[in-house]
Amino acid sequence: MTISLYAASVPVFKQMLNALSDVLNKAEAHATAKNIDPSVFLQARLYPDMFPLVRQVQIAVDFAKGVSARLAEVELPKYDDNETTFAELQALITKVLAFLDGFAPAQIDGKEGIEIVTRPGTPKEKRFTGQAYLLTYGLPQFFFHVTTTYAILRHNGVEVGKRDYMGAF
């Protein structure tokens, strides 16, 4: 039995973005309950040379929309990535979930062999087939940033567990 590119991408992104939204809700509620300035969480990092939580969320969202758009060969929506609050991050996630809802399996399935070029014309340019882009680059990058967001919050005392990370499936 084979699995389609669509099945391995859009539903996975949606599941994890919904879970990420729920985790952010828990973080905001925790900050309120403990009288902690929300920016403490939003600017928290696991290590000084890593991006803060707000940027981790932005990058995760960018990969969800970017991978899906590239596989479907449609124009990537461009967002400013200037969110600074939980509400703005939630709005960003909502916007990308709506974007993902616009994809049909037929737009992505069968695109295993298309060429996807990241950072074209730069020293960091990489070329992938559609399948390799999804499986060896896009999904790992997406999961890294979702996981790092979760880890930052857990490290800072937000009571989240594996069920929160996984979301509804």
Automatic annotation (TrEMBL):
Q: Which Pfam families match?
A: DUF1993
- InterPro entries from the UniProt entry: DinB/YfiT-like, DUF1993
| Entry-linked SUPFAM superfamilies | DinB/YfiT-like putative metalloenzymes (SSF109854)
Tell me the PANTHER family matching this sequence: BLL2446 PROTEIN (PTHR36922), DUF1993 DOMAIN-CONTAINING PROTEIN (PTHR36922:SF1)
* Entry protein name: DUF1993 domain-containing protein
The organism is Pseudomonas alkylphenolica
